[in-house]
Write a structure and sequence with these properties.
Elements (H helix, E strand, L loop, with lengths): L1 E12 L11 E2 L11 E12 L8 E2 L8 H8 L4 E9 L8 E11 L4 E12 L2 H8 L1 E2 L2 E2 L5 E5 L6 H11 L9 E2 L6 H6 L3 E7 L4 E7 L6 H10 L3 E4 L9 H10 L3 H4 L16 H11 L27
Parallel strand pairs: 1-14, 2-11
Antiparallel strand pairs: 1-3, 3-4, 3-13, 5-7, 5-10, 6-7, 8-9, 10-12, 12-13
Length: 314
């Protein structure tokens, strides 16, 4: 299996943010008095697959095998990371809590309710990964809804209020889920270096790092991926919206085999998906008048179909 680490940087308007993973997640409706601002974003997600059709891809940050704690430490040296959750489980709370508030969470429009805990805790190194995945040594554990990166070692009261505005009205019982209010991002970034949100990908969350100023992250992302044994793959749009087979095809086009060696992702044996290497060769043969199947081969592309569930063409 190939472990890949996809990344993309773009910008959004906090008052009119771009869409998230189709059918899985959307932004909460914005606060009516919030001023729209440009926010810079780096999105990273992982995948595991056997060939460049990516039909069997497992998608989500965790599948790259890259530590989120290491990535944040490299991007923001000397800073402190705090995890936050608005709908925490009262029997699964993390250590190093700086905020713990019990409340009753209404569900399904108030038909039901359950006990919940709003919490914020300090996180560093492997703790970041445990809270991102909701697992501690393979056992279920507390799961964060996001992270903030701050100077110093304290979370201000203003930042706690801003985090509440960001995620305090989330509803994971909706379809698509509504987890964050983009209109609150500028307020959070007034009191922090970055806020990290966990947007839904197909089999697990992708990690989106929002900053008030452009973050030159590409070289760090590629280095951390390489050190972790993952193959870094650039995307034109956030990975949770895009097709891995197309991204791999476009990367292969510019691949310098003399400098970097053989392309590390094998071509699909059966022509694979629309963007696989062998599919393109077959299409080229047909253009030359040779026999062969047209572009796309006999079967669909990534995850078994044109476009794929929850995925967009770039």
């Amino acid at each position: 299996m190939v472990r890949a680490f996809g990344y993309c940087n773009d910008v959004i308007e906090s008052g009119a943010p771009s869409r998230l993973c189709r059918g899985r997640e959307r932004w909460l409706e914005g606060l009516p008095d919030a001023e729209s601002c440009v926010v810079f974003r780096n999105v990273v997600s992982g995948a595991q697959f056997t060939d460049d059709s990516a039909r069997d891809a497992l998608r989500g940050y965790r599948f790259a095998g890259v530590s989120a704690g290491t990535l944040l430490a490299e991007l923001f040296p000397g800073a402190t990371v705090f995890a936050f959750c608005h709908t925490g489980d009262p029997i699964a709370l993390p250590d190093d809590l700086v905020l713990e508030e019990d409340w009753v969470e209404p569900m399904h429009g108030g038909i039901r309710s359950r006990s919940a805990v709003r919490w914020v805790c300090k996180a560093a190194g492997p703790v970041v990964d445990e809270l991102l995945n909701g697992e501690i040594e393979g056992e279920p554990g507390p799961r964060a809804e996001g992270f903030v990166v701050v100077k110093g070692t304290q979370v201000s009261a203003e930042l706690l209020d801003a985090i509440y505005h960001l995620s305090g009205f989330s509803d994971a019982t909706q379809t698509p889920q509504e987890l964050y209010a983009a209109s609150a991002l500028p307020e959070v970034l007034e009191h922090s270096l970055a806020v990290v949100l966990l947007h839904l990908d197909k089999h697990g969350p992708a990690v989106a790092i929002y900053t008030a100023e452009p973050l030159q992250a590409e070289e760090t992302i590629r280095r951390v991926a390489r050190d972790s044994g993952a193959f870094a793959v650039p995307f034109a749009i956030p990975p949770m919206l895009a097709r891995w087979d197309r991204a791999l095809y476009e990367l292969r086009l510019d691949w310098d085999a003399e400098t970097y060696g053989e392309f590390p992702v094998p071509p699909a044996d059966d022509a694979g998906g629309r963007w696989s290497a062998r599919s393109r060769r077959i299409g080229a043969m047909r253009d030359d008048g040779s026999e062969g199947e047209g572009e796309g081969g006999p079967e669909g592309g990534e995850n078994g179909g044109e476009g794929g569930e929850g995925e967009e063409e770039e």
